[in-house]
User: Which sequence fits this backbone?
């Protein structure tokens, strides 16, 4: 692996990030706030990015090892430099808190250490929401869209970053695919902003909530999240767009290009819809009988939280930590499943759950008919055995990391319910959990070491585990080369 080439691309990402920090200045100017934190942060980030680009080898083509390195190191660099506005503005008590908040943003997790969100400057809060929006579709995918000079190597970034077991290219060129994804992403964000404005939100609130919704991130500029508005219309709009954000963006493209039956022909989408509707009814009936006493409020809050947790957005309209055990347990299970592959949601993804269910049923059939050849099908397609093996391996690794994560938190004397939900929320990029990390609480009281550990779990979950862990494999480390097969840097020339 050529470290100089990787550093050059990370430098390009930092340049883009530095310019992005100037966007919140619009709101800082409008509300008469101090501009220095954002301006200084932008200058530092831009400067470091330009230095990396100038003193490293220009990009020619990436191999898959370098693609993994760029995806992981790009996210780490984004979290490190993206924390500067929080640090310089004093929004977070410590540097580690700032890194936690920023990693939570870029990974679209939505976990926070902020106790009084509304007390912070609007420009800083907009940057907080913008980190989720940028991380939702992926800074790396954006870089492929705007940096066609990556050539074939762009595919390595696209596959390393895009969530899900398979990264679909519905156009011949990766850059063209990435651009279409971003056109859809931006268009849906703008449409949702307009619809939220009709519901009485200010432009600032509408835009920040739209950014967080399409990223399935869940950051809100209000302390009570969506509950602060107490509006059935706003909740309905958010439910629709959370569901759309949790749908494979390839299907959105196919629908817009005239393939109207594409959605329902897709086995994962049908399963995703069934899970959302089924869990909505189960939670609503449970709340009706054991919490609210009437069906309408049970359905209203049950539907919102079911969609919010399935898509790993985790907006809240109620203190679900006070709900019956069945509803809380089902929400945690939904957050572990996640939404569709190729969407901006986190967790396992519905397609993996569906394949595992079909795989388990196939094994039961084999017990009854040992000589039968039973292919595993999703709709009209047969799933290759290699893909099944990869999914089984991924789920096993996911659960192993989850169990080890819970053990780490309990070693710090964190109670079991908090440990289970905090690890599930971090690894699944969900945000709030239960007990000490419930919807009315935050992660501020966690020790610094645990905040860094949970930040690492967020990164693992966002980049689908393998992209990060492969960098730690001894064979990979041995192949890291600073200057072999290099082109001379601009400085050396």
Assistant:
């Amino acid at each position: 692996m050529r470290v100089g080439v990787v550093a050059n691309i990370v430098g390009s990402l930092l340049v883009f990030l530095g310019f992005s920090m100037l966007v919140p200045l619009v709101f800082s100017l409008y509300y008469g706030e101090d501009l220095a934190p954002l301006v200084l942060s932008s200058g530092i980030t831009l400067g470091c990015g330009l230095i990396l680009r100038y003193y490293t080898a220009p990009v020619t083509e990436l191999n898959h090892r370098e693609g993994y390195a760029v995806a992981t190191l790009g996210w780490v660099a984004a979290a490190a430099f993206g924390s500067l506005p929080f640090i310089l503005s004093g929004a977070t008590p410590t540097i580690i808190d700032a890194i936690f908040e920023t990693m939570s943003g870029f990974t679209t997790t939505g976990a926070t250490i902020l106790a009084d969100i509304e007390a912070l400057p609007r420009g800083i809060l907009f940057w907080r929401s913008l980190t989720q929006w940028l991380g939702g579709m992926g800074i790396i995918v954006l870089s492929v869209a705007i940096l066609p000079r990556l050539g074939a190597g762009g595919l390595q970034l696209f596959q390393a970053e895009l969530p899900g077991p398979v990264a679909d290219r519905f156009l011949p060129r990766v850059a063209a695919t990435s651009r279409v994804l971003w056109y859809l992403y931006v268009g849906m964000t703008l449409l949702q902003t307009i619809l939220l404005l009709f519901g009485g939100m200010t432009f600032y609130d509408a835009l920040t909530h739209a950014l967080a919704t399409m990223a399935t991130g869940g950051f809100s500029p209000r302390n009570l999240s969506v509950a602060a508005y107490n509006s059935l219309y706003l909740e309905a709009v958010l439910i629709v767009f959370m569901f759309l954000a949790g749908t494979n963006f390839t299907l959105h493209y196919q629908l817009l290009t005239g393939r109207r039956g594409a959605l329902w022909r897709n086995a994962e989408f049908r399963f995703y819809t069934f899970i959302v509707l089924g869990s909505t009814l189960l939670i609503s009936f449970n709340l009706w009988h054991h919490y609210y006493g009437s069906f309408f409020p049970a359905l209203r809050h049950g539907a919102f939280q079911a969609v919010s947790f399935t898509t790993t957005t985790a907006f809240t309209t109620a203190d679900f930590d006070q709900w019956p055990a069945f509803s809380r347990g089902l929400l945690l299970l939904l957050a572990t499943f996640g939404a569709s592959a190729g969407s901006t949601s986190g967790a396992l993804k519905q397609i993996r759950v569906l394949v595992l269910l079909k795989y388990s049923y196939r094994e039961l059939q084999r017990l009854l008919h040992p000589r039968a050849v039973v292919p595993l099908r999703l709709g009209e397609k047969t799933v290759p055995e290699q893909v099944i093996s990869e999914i089984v391996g991924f789920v096993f690794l996911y659960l192993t990391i989850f169990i080890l994560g819970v053990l780490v938190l309990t070693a710090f004397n964190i109670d079991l319910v908090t440990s289970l939900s905090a690890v599930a929320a971090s690894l699944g990029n969900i945000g709030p959990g239960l007990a000490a990390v419930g919807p009315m609480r935050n992660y501020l009281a966690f020790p610094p070491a645990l905040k860094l550990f949970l930040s690492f779990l967020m990164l693992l979950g966002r980049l689908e585990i393998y992209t990060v862990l492969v960098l730690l494999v001894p064979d990979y480390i041995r192949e890291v080369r600073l200057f072999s097969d290099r082109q001379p840097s601009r400085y050396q020339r």
